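hi!! sorry for the late reply, been swamped w classes. u asked for the two structures so here they r. pasted raw, havent cleaned anything up. first the sequence of the first protein and right below it the tokens
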Amino acid sequence: MKGSAASPPTRPSHAAPTSPSPSPASLRQWRPAAQRNLRNQWSRLLAAKARWLSAEPPAPPLPQASPSLPPSLRYMPGMDLGALKDMPGIREKASGKLAHREEQYQNMLVSAYKEMVLATADLVKTSHSMRCFSKVAVNSPLIKFTERQDDMNDSGDGGGAPVFKWFSMLEFENLAHELVEMFISELQLKRLLALELLSLTLKEGVQHDASLEWSDELFDGEFNEFQSIGLLSGDSYPLPKSWSADVSQAWQPGQTRSHEVLQVYLTCWLANVNIKTSRIDEIFELVGEEMQIKLT
């Protein structure tokens, strides 16, 4: 019995070609270079995704850092210490220990967030480097290929032709865009949560008496990274347009949060609510199958 013909995998949407079809000879030259570039870029996407996930701080410190430690510092002067109350300097020593631990957790939070920003920047830049453009060498009949567009008439997509077997360049880009948008959305949420948690610790500290604003940098160079991937508008980083007015109005810097609200914040931080792990795995599996490589 004859085997049935192989059917194409589920294709991404919006896969119409974006440029005129090149000649068969040009396509034969372009395709191997485009294949090499796509393999490299998707391997980089995989590495950037792993960098993001490894940036998550350990689960235990975060719940201890905000819902528990700050209230302890806040109420330490009036807290009933029982049999320990008459020990000389016990309140000051306990407050000092708690403040030191709180500072450690704050640094862990900022460090984790910074790694997520850098990983997101890698994801965005890589997703914009999928195309393969021709570059004619001076005084040479050979055609070289590059990620940079020198000829505005060359869109770098092979005229919408399949790069490997089924998918066009635009289809690979659509899959990369879908993946990257999840991490951008999650990064914006992480930033809001980090501002809330860091503002809380700042208010509890002796040397600080101000809340962080959305327009404040959480680490040196943060807005430079946003600028490099198009998330910065002018000199400011506006609240995401996709957030509803209710969410924007509910977030008021300096407002005291209840223990229950902080627990929700921490749960959201640890859950990566905007990242659909099963869909990300599906995308990498789909691309790996098309390229005949393993992306895990």
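now the second protein. again sequence first, tokens right under
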Amino acid sequence: MKQTVRRIEANGREIILVGTAHISKESIEEAATVIRTEHPDRVCIELDEGRLQSLNNEKGWQELDIVKVLKEGKGFLLLANLVLASFQKKMGQDIGIKPGDEMKEAIRVSAEEGIPTSMVDRPIHVTLRRAWAKNGLWGKSKLLALLVSSALSNEEMKSEDIENLKDQSAMDGMMEELAKYLPKIKEVLIDERDRYLASHIWQAEGTKLVAILGAGHLPGTEAYIRELAAGTQNPDTTDISTVPPKTIGGKIAGWTFPAILLLLFAAGFFTGGAVTSIDMLIRWLLWNGTLAAIGTAVALGHPLAIVTAFVGAPIATINPFIGVGLFSGLVQALLRKPQVRDMEHLAQDVTTIRGFYRNRISHVLLVFFLSSLGGAIGNFIAVPALIGSLL
């Protein structure tokens, strides 16, 4: 048996897990072959209904409302989703395969064979929002930096490279690296979904099941299914099926930085009077606003978006419920309104740096992100400088 196929027999049931690479021609063929050969009672697919709809409707980007996305605080989520989609699409272009083709083929063959299917993955918006909620700005920035560097890499992927990703030792190494670099991301994207997939596969109807899932989920999902069969694991996944609300500590943490600034300004007043306090305030405004404006300029934002970033950064800092990226991004979107062409070509444009800047939707997201990053860097530089001025 191939190492990409795992067979579990327990409690009078047989569950066959097929690990795939999402842009692999061999995986497409293997998924179809296993389904036809085994002819199970049901085929479980590592998709949710939303992602299935996206796979079947490649023009879904045309319905995107970037202003609404920013107002709802989903700018970071959309940017991460876009960059990830860009990375997968670019890899697929190198070998002539579209991401998710093996899942579509599994669904097609199942329908052809008269076998019902179940989408057993957690909704993508829940996964992304949980990942976002568990990471601060630094974690988000590291994730986006990793995705962007991968998406914009000029290294060509060969079909052999893709197939090697299914090798267990290679996959284990990748998971270890991810756990070291982005532990919270690995927890949400891999560990939680392993458990979710296992639970929903286990609860699917039928005595013989075939499950098509990414090779990275194969070991964890198999382990969880065996625990479910042994009765040592609870199939309930309610705790990982929603976005965790902010804890009291998290809400308090949002006001920590504004409180630190106020304490520093107060200390300046008591040690040097109003002149010192005002001087510290001006220095902070310049650090915070200037770097937010520089970030917007690096994103080639509209001049008014740059001014907005400079003025809005201090306001965003003292109000944890908004970010400077919201201000600058909205101004950019209103002054450089996305056109139909931008929506139609978004998926392709984000595969190159030039396209990212050219497309007005992705350009707005760049302005949003880089102004936010600039403002954050300005704050981290300003605080030590202000403390130093008191010594």
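hope this helps!! also noticed smth abt the second:
The radius of gyration is 24 Å.
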